[in-house]
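re: that complex we talked abt at group meeting.

here r the seqs, copy pasted straight from the sheet so there may be weird spacing, ignore it
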Amino acid sequence: MKRVEPVKVALLGCGVVGAEVTRLLHEQAADLTARIGAPLELVGIGVRRPGRDRGGLPVDSTLFTADVLSLVKRDDVDIVIEVVGGIEPARTWLVEALTRGKGVVTANKALLAEDGPTLHDAAADGGADLYYEAAVAGAIPLLRPLRESLHGDRITRVTGIVNGTTNYILSAMDDSGASFAEALEQATSLGYAEADPTADVEGFDAAAKAAILASLAFHTRVRAADVYREGVTEVTAADVASARAMGCTIKLLCIAERGPGNGTGPGSVSVRVYPAMIPRNHPLASVGDAFNAVFVEAEAAGQLMFYGRGAGGAPTASAILGDLVAVARHRLAGVRAASESAYADLRIRPIGEAWTRYHISLDVADRAGVLATVAGVFAKHNVSIATVRQSGRDEDAVLVIVTHMAQDAALAATVAELRELDTVRAVAGVLRVEGE
Amino acid sequence: MKRVEPVKVALLGCGVVGAEVTRLLHEQAADLTARIGAPLELVGIGVRRPGRDRGGLPVDSTLFTADVLSLVKRDDVDIVIEVVGGIEPARTWLVEALTRGKGVVTANKALLAEDGPTLHDAAADGGADLYYEAAVAGAIPLLRPLRESLHGDRITRVTGIVNGTTNYILSAMDDSGASFAEALEQATSLGYAEADPTADVEGFDAAAKAAILASLAFHTRVRAADVYREGVTEVTAADVASARAMGCTIKLLCIAERGPGNGTGPGSVSVRVYPAMIPRNHPLASVGDAFNAVFVEAEAAGQLMFYGRGAGGAPTASAILGDLVAVARHRLAGVRAASESAYADLRIRPIGEAWTRYHISLDVADRAGVLATVAGVFAKHNVSIATVRQSGRDEDAVLVIVTHMAQDAALAATVAELRELDTVRAVAGVLRVEGE
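got the structure back, here u go
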């Protein structure tokens, strides 16, 4: 068999994921060569501190360099893997690589969600592949199915648990009755939450992934800024107990949903991230611990679910290497994958136009006429009530109301007006309810 | 925008799935054109009876022809979709199409499992794409993730529920305590089982899918004949109750598992289909009704699960159209997908070498020394016992034994010897147990 020139790879970043990538490249070298048809050669690793001791990594220490831009520009580099994260300087490096025609494999969800179009445009200019399976739901093969397998179908809705940290926290609250603060502390001590957990618990991470999923599912450019976002910091133990009482559990969901257009328009899409109650018999309800899962509904395919580890060095590296094999094969064949598909260009609906249901807990004075007054507020906003449950008496009376489907604007206006009622001492909790 | 020549498609077969394909081609025409970059044109439909009334199909009646071979050979046909099924004449048609360089999209699991290499060789000869996502687990995007997303990883095990008919039957038995015959009748009346259910209930359908999955997961040519197969016809209500008593449920599983080689060899693969008990907390246990799910374990990715509808006209058509878009794009770009990957060529292990656990129910005489005699048989074959439970007394005594992991040959030899014991009146049930 004739000797085939290796495909040359530059790795940007060598933290947990990058180290795992070097390990897999080394351990799976023979298999990767057979699957690609040529060996992969790691020719450089861009890091901030090249001199740092990285004992145990199966790579030559001379490969490390702090001059990342020069590495990216090297003529002999065929493919760039980026696991640094953040907007800059990652964007500059990747745009440079793509416009020079180098394939790019990245796990950078923040950059893709904030400014994906710039990367896609650079890929189109350079005639280069841009792959990012690892950016959403770690090891779960999700983007390729959305990008390719379901291309003959019409996706109507994507509902996902895409943030492992918050899923761990909400699962712990559900299992043990812990408060948010207690569950967060537990997650931090186990390494599931970072020292500054803001990006996770405030839903920014999930919103970035929601933007990427929505873009692929609906052939429309959706950015993180287009995603309505609420985090989980205000979910209380009482909310969790209340969910349990109605046969539900609370999950931080990312939802991307096709909807009607404006009159004769081409339709619209609603993309949102918030904690919501879902019935315990929903396939997503049993996704515990730090696992991720994404539920996809399509007109012909029906309901599909993808489940697996959403984070961690090895799972993320698995997704990166899957992409790397695809890009390397394309280079050897002299082709590139289908580029970004954004032809549908659907209108992004604001949260007020989203259809959902509310679960509302009211602290009320237990006296005649309270329910009539409260119900009157719902009626005024054309929000239909599905169930009402009163617990406690006298000064401790609590009214729990679950609505039928209504537009979020009407539901929010209802809650705002309830807060003003004399007979309502406090709106103790408001959570959306998803899934029938 | 300049007018692009259409990609011309021939459809072979127009039953439930074929009709759904014509419907989707019609309804999604604008979206498909945008996603492919050229319109698709259905130029012929090969059927046995072209004159048959197919009211409501959105196609010109002149497209129908009984001369399928001529249709396949037509110079203007770019892509052939085959939804006829069976070995011949489908094989002849597809080999003809592939060697002429036409892309093929097929749902024909029987042909792929019986003689996949012939199709793959023809595809290689003709430089043509061969796609078959619809052949396994209907609409679930499964083959593409195995073929591509996980190519940088090392799959260790694939465990699937890939036959909807038997899953419906076993779920019904579990839910209601029905017998196999009652559950089959129910499945038939609801259209989940065919008039002749042999292919489903005897595990032939699942074995074909297991061969296809194992081939992709382990880069090795595995044929249906290589798959060890047991159906579900001998699963009794007592087995189901016994499974329930130990916190398990019974599912018809297809298992493809990497294993050691012979000494210094490159490893081996065990591929088998049989009903087995799995713990109720296993992700596959909650896959009810006629749904399919496939659980994949890989070294880096960890545990993944894919879930959805495994059969039905629309879900199958969704998978076919996803493949069709990929093949059409490749034709426009003048490329083809990576061909079959069978480089690993692992040895297929016989069932006797598979590691599993047995759940054995024995009708025994309730007298001193019985357990010692029975335990002696297990010890003789080096099979370690995990749990023993005795129920009933005197003439109705039943001994339920669950083993630790052992090779199937040793387990089978143990059961054979137990049947010969005077103190064992009958071996009432033997089922394998999978999942820890």
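couple things i noticed - Residues 154 and 206 of chain A are 23 Å apart (CA to CA). Chain A has three domains: 7-131+314-333, 147-308, 351-433.
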